Amino acid sequence: MKQEQPLIFEISRPGRTGHSLPENDVAEVPVEKLLPAECIREEAPELPEVSELELMRHYTALSVNNHGVDTGFYPLGSCTMKYNPKMHEDIARMEGFSHVHPYQPEDQIQGALELMYHLQSCLCEITGMDEVTLQSAAGAQGEWTGLMMIRAFHEANGKPHRRKVIIPDSAHGTNPASARVAGFDAVTVRTNEKGLVDIDHLKEVAGDDTAALMLTNPNTLGLFEEEITEIASIIHEAGGKLYYDGANSNAILGITRPGDMGFDVVHLNLHKTFTGPHGGGGPGSGPVGVKKDLLPFLPKPLLKKEADGYRWDYDRPASIGRVKPFYGNFGINIRAYAYIRTMGAKGLKQVSEHAVLNANYLLHKLAPYFDVPYERYCKHEFVLSGKRQKKNGVSTLDMAKRLLDFGYHPPTIYFPINVEECFMVEPTETESKETLDAFADAMVTIAKEAEYEPETVLNAPHTTVVRRLDETTAARKPVLIFKPNKNAQG
Question: Strand, helix or coil at 399?
């Protein structure tokens, strides 16, 4: 029955409560003695009155509406949304790891230090670098850390004028942002008709003011830079350094290494390639590895192994300093180390082989129904274009919204920006053939709808809890506090 008076909360009813506490038998201190007058409420807060069961059902229902790798396929290109093994969650929660504190003396946390030291050694071997720091909190901070070391290197060698960082037009947006924050100017190098770095243009923009080239390989189009050794030679002959954005490392594990390609600095995303939890803003981890000539500039402290154990080395006069409180996100380090030791060298190679196989299988199934800007084998991800659907008035955004009705998180869209109406799809190695087939069937259905019944796609989503949102307003004017609905009725 409809209530006579409006309710602030839809399921709240006067007098209901989710707790039962004994009467307070402690003498209360007047609130005026505890708080300044301007902080004391004149009216009681408007809080919902619900039972514990109603409260649990409310939050459980909200949690079911969240989409994640544990609930459905998440083919987010360039993000490597792969499954996070639950065994590693248990390992990270072991008392010897979860109960340590970064302020404890070194002799009390030798086990934690040993794990981090061995993780650094593993990452050196995987990347072909000479030393690694685990301090950076995420990939973007890893980029900034690497660029700050490159800047320190040039300044130490009397080359402070080297202030240009070359970045491909298909690069991750964090690359130019990191370059600017590190005090550099970002210079764009074009992509050629094959989707790779335009070598002739690179030769034009590289010069005695070049500090570095930032590159991921395979690149953001999912294509391997075949001329990587020539690219490295051009940059090194110009006196610059080569920076490897490790976001796409899931394609190369055990097959090739950035250090062998000629890179001087590399960051890895432990929350991508090495199965740390990913999404919701973190936690991230972006270890940075360097070749020997950049080693003096690594953030301090640096973890060292000595005859009597492990210790922090603060005596590093050329260091760029500390880039994060304490020493990285330790819980993510544990998960990554557990993953590496579980997989082993053979298993890590199979990870990349299967990731590449899955991507090419899915590309082959979707190619007849979408435009493929670069018709060649991809690596761990690939790009499609919705140009032919756009001719019927259906955009890539419309198709992404329609995909929600099939229970899938949409791929990355409109990135890279040099592909019109872009879809960027990364299936990862952990998805089965059945999942890939079902996703492909959904994409094909949507492509056909865009041609024969476009209104179905234009009005999507149809089955989600909320319909299509005003994303621009949501981004620019987010609602960050609860605002009661004064007009709600029971």
Answer: helix
How many angstroms separate the CA atoms of 107 and 307, rounded? 13
| Spatial distance between the Cα atoms of 294 and 131, rounded to a whole number of angstroms | 9
CB 321 within 8 A of CB 299: yes
Whether the pLDDT of residue 6 is over 80: the answer is: no
Closest CA to 248 of 368, 149, 356, 162: 356
Residues 420 and 376 sit within 8 Å (Cβ to Cβ): no
Are residue 297 and residue 276 in the same domain, yes or no? yes
Peptide bond into 301 cis (omega under 30): yes
Report the predicted TM-score, pTM, of the whole model to 2 decimal places: 0.89
What's the rounded Cα separation, in Å, for the pair 218 and 228? 10
Cα 424 from Cα 404, distance rounded (Å): 16
Number of domains in the chain: 2
Confirm if 434 and 391 have CB atoms less than 8 A apart: no
Q: Is 284 strand, coil or helix?
A: coil
Name the residue with tokens 């409310």: 58
Q: Which of 461, 390, 443, 448 shows the shortest CA–CA distance to 419?
A: 390
Q: Is residue 81 part of a domain?
A: no
pLDDT score, position 280: 60
Residues 219 and 99 in one domain: yes
